Amino acid sequence: MSKVFVLDAEKRPLYPIHSAQARQLLTNKKAAVFRRFPFTIILKESRLDSIVSPLRLKIDPGAKTTGIALVNNSTGEVVFAAELKHRGFAIRDALTSRRQLRRGRRARKTRYRQPRFLNRTRPQGWLPPSLQSRVDNIKTLVEKLRRFAPITAISQELVRFDMQLMQNPDIQGNEYQQGTLQGFETREYLLEKWNRECAYCGVKDVPLQIEHIHPRAKGGSNSIANLTLSCEKCNVKKGTKDIKDFLKKDPSKLEKILKQAKRPLADAAAVNTTRFALLNVLKATGLPVETGSGGLTKFNRSELARSCCSNKEGLANPEGQQRLEKTHWLDAACVGTSTPILNIKGVKPLLITASGHGTRQMCGTDKFGFPSRHRTNKQIHFGFQTGDIIKSVVTSGKKVGVYVGRVLCRATGSFDIATSKGRISGISHKYCLATHKKDGYSYAIF
């Protein structure tokens, strides 16, 4: 599993250690638990002989999930990995609902309201809240990891796809396009756009070929809008036929393919909108920041990653190279050119979900916008608040047992606990002990 973060007696980060070492230090009472997620211990006495090797923080930003990896540049060892799930789409839906409720209420209360324009100004660099939350989530996690690990450099996947390079292969010189990266930008873009399946038959998990929607033999271009993915069987069957002739018996699929070919990649648009805002946040840390593209990440994942032994994340081939799975944290580990060799032995990513801090809305409404419930402004009850991760040891009554999970507090002192096996109701606060205070995120081990 991932290594354990260590702080010295002065709360300075040391190099992460194996979980067995951390267990031994805790057993011998030479260290104490400092934080549960990510798991961190603090030494009770300073160790002068501690050697601190620098680590590189690698980030693969995504519209829904961002991959995080801490890598030792000199050895290629991945000491920590995480996948951060954003709540940008939930924020977007909440803002849409609020806008609709306000509009409905205004229509009921006011006969006519003259439209107003240009009455609000936005600062330079403003992002919608749904996009700004993605940047803030990553910023929060970077700040946390810097407190727990000796991070000296950062790598970020700046562009998901190098669109200019695809449109103009000579934009950065022939060596870049005709070298080892040739075709990786285009293939990665098409895999994301066409959901990694054959556009004609929908088959998955087979080798896919780049196929021209309008064949080149009949005047079709190499434009990215004229390319799709096809399995070998469909590609051979279509040959040089026009797509309208090939799919004349399936007009619905024809319409779907032509529509998808013109549609931009929505998730890529969200990432592209926030990429430079995130880059500025990372540069503000004062650490050197390396950037790379999605095509380079895929090239590293398929060609350059090596491991000291095989495991379930990768299959070593006879040459010692490794075909890595397509996961967010592995993509993060492969960002940039700084770590050509990877050791991912035994790494289990921490799954982090941005859950927010609740709502400030004091008056709850039904779906029509009418008041239906009222909330109290008191959030802490008996030292707990909803969202804390607790451990409850019930010794008497009908619910004897040990329960660990997220607590839902009530003013009566009768709490609910959301565990991995379900929701447990009616647990008294007297049996509860907080293990991780609410911080706006929920955690789980992969």
Describe this structure in words.
The chain is an alpha+beta fold. The protein folds into 4 domains: about 5-45; about 55-85 and about 130-165 and about 270-355, Nucleotidyltransferase, domain 5 (2-Layer Sandwich); about 165-260, DNA Binding (I), subunit A, CATH 1.10.30; about 375-440, SH3 type barrels. Helix content is about 30%, strand content about 25%. The protein has helices at about 20-25, 90-110, 130-150, 165, 175-180, 185-195, 230-240, 245, 250-260, 265-285, 295-305, 330-335, and strands at about 5, 15, 30-35, 40-45, 55-60, 65-70, 80-85, 150-160, 210, 225-230, 290-295, 315, 320-325, 350-355, 365, 370-375, 390-395, 400-410, 415-420, 420-430, 430-435, 440-445. Strands 11-8-5-6-7-14-22 form a 7-stranded mixed beta sheet. A 5-stranded antiparallel beta sheet has the order 20-19-18-17-21, with no helix packed on it. A 4-stranded mixed beta sheet has the order 2-1-4-3, with helices on both faces. A hairpin with a 2-residue loop joins strand 19 and strand 20. The chain is globular, with a radius of gyration of 26 Å. The chain starts with a strand and ends with a strand. Residues about 170-180 and about 305-320 have low confidence and may be disordered.
